[in-house]
Design brief:
single chain; 251 residues; alpha+beta; Aminopeptidase; 2 domains; seven-stranded mixed sheet; three-stranded antiparallel sheet; 33% helix; 32% strand; globular
Length: 251
């Protein structure tokens, strides 16, 4: 199945939003108290946000939730959640949802979208920085509180801090505009700093919890120092052994 065979449309009815809640429960495997309820989706929609769903034969297989926001003195959307059904992952559905989100945001006069992701997950970093063209200027330690159980451990308590990087998606930047058009963007700047990350975080957590905690601490220290010195993460280098964030001076 390919992403082009899907239909992406706005979810508007209570039943459609309830399907998003069910999919959220399936994909993220969070405790029930952490699940965003139907009312949250309804309030978001009626406050000026939107929810886009990806459908295959009228079955919801993915969605992206866009919460209205006001950031840095301008209208924005906070992309609170993107979920894709496990059996439909790796087919470009998440990418299709994000580009549809960009299109809808621009139609609404919004040029800036922001969301969080886990710093140690190389695949997510590559997707956000290289496939979408986002940049990063903020690291927030323990953003949601301690994650005592994670999907990577099958629910086994290990006590990871929920550190997060904030992806900033400037929808009309040169890089984003080229990627949206299916063109290649070539970075001409020389990086001032590289921050390496483990190539397989899930396996590290399963096999060596202390090493995972040490990796988390290292990333926090390196990103905090880099951002304090005025650098911005604008690229990501894929590598089977040592993937890296590439950081540059702010323009």
């Amino acid at each position: 199945m390919a992403a082009r065979e899907l239909t992406i449309r706005e979810c508007t009815t209570v039943d459609e939003l309830a399907d998003c809640v069910d999919l959220q429960r399936e994909v993220f495997a969070l405790p029930e108290i952490e699940i965003s309820p139907v009312r949250h989706f309804i309030v978001t929609k009626n406050a000026g946000g939107f929810i886009l769903g990806a459908y295959s034969d009228e079955q919801l297989v993915g969605f992206v939730l866009s919460v209205p926001a006001f950031l840095r003195g301008e209208k924005a959307f906070y992309s609170h959640m993107t979920a894709v059904k496990s059996s439909f992952q790796s087919y470009g559905i998440g990418r299709g949802l994000k580009w549809a989100q960009r299109t809808r945001a621009l139609e609404l006069g919004v040029k800036f979208v922001k969301w969080t992701f886990e710093p140690w997950k190389a695949r997510n970093a590559y997707f956000n920085l290289e496939k979408l063209g986002a940049v990063i200027t903020e690291y927030h330690p323990n953003f949601y509180g301690i994650d005592y159980a994670t999907a990577a451990t099958g629910g086994k308590p290990i006590g990871l801090a929920s550190d997060r990087l904030f992806a900033e998606w400037h929808l009309e930047s040169e890089k984003v505009t080229k990627l949206a058009a299916g063109e290649t963007f070539t970075e001409t700047r020389t990086p001032e700093l590289e921050i390496s990350v483990t190539p397989d975080w899930a396996n590290l957590v399963k096999t060596d919890v202390q090493a995972a905690l040490s990796e988390q601490s290292r990333l926090k220290d390196e990103f905090t120092a880099a951002f304090a010195s005025g650098l911005i993460a604008g690229s990501f280098k894929r590598d089977d052994q040592e993937p890296k964030y590439l950081l540059y001076k702010k323009d």
